[in-house]
């Protein structure tokens, strides 16, 4: 489209407005009634929905972190070690696992998590570290690294 004067160019809102409205109507397609057909109503509802979607993404991340922490804490209590002691022992042993990996191991591979907890506890005992963050003692079973070693497990399976 060719414009001979700047005034005509400024007054022309055609194609850009059509595509802008079309984008909003596509986002409002699943709404009912005027919320989907009337632009002034649809644009308010679409903007509100996009704000909720943005907040929901952050809340989903936080919910997953809370779930991972709960799983790890529960598994740590089974093995008589605190979460802080587990993380500190694994860090000192150069075992760099994040929350998601630890929670997956705690939920789906408890023997592997038991070995990691034993390694962390052994490293903490060697270093003489005292966990002062949690005064309440866990009520699980005491771990010993020799009890969960791979060689002992292999000997049991060969028999």
Automatic annotation (TrEMBL):
Pfam families xrefs: Ribosomal_L20 (PF00453)
UniProt superkingdom: Eukaryota
Swiss-Prot/TrEMBL keywords: Ribonucleoprotein, Ribosomal protein
Stored InterPro entries: Ribosomal_bL20 (IPR005813), Ribosomal_protein_bL20_C (IPR035566)
SUPFAM superfamilies the UniProt entry points to: Ribosomal protein L20 (SSF74731)
Record's keyword annotation contains Ribonucleoprotein: yes
Keyword Ligase recorded: no
Family: Belongs to the bacterial ribosomal protein bL20 family.
PANTHER family per record: 39S RIBOSOMAL PROTEIN L20
Protein name: Mitochondrial ribosomal protein L20
High-level lineage: Eukaryota, Metazoa, Ecdysozoa, Arthropoda, Hexapoda
């Amino acid at each position: 489209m060719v414009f001979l004067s700047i005034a005509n160019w400024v007054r022309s809102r055609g194609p850009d407005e059509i595509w802008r409205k079309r984008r909003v109507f596509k986002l409002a397609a699943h709404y009912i009634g005027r919320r989907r057909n009337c632009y002034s109503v649809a644009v308010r509802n679409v903007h509100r929905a996009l704000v909720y979607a943005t907040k929901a993404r952050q809340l989903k991340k936080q919910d997953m972190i809370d779930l991972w922490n709960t799983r790890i804490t529960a598994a740590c209590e089974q093995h008589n070690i605190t979460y802080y002691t587990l993380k500190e022992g694994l860090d000192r042993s150069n075992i760099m696992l994040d929350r998601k990996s630890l929670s997956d191991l705690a939920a789906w591979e408890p023997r592997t998590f038991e070995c990691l907890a034993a390694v962390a506890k052994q490293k903490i005992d060697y270093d003489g570290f005292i966990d002062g963050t949690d005064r309440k003692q866990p009520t699980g079973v005491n771990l010993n690294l020799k009890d969960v070693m791979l060689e002992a497990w292999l000997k049991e399976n060969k028999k």
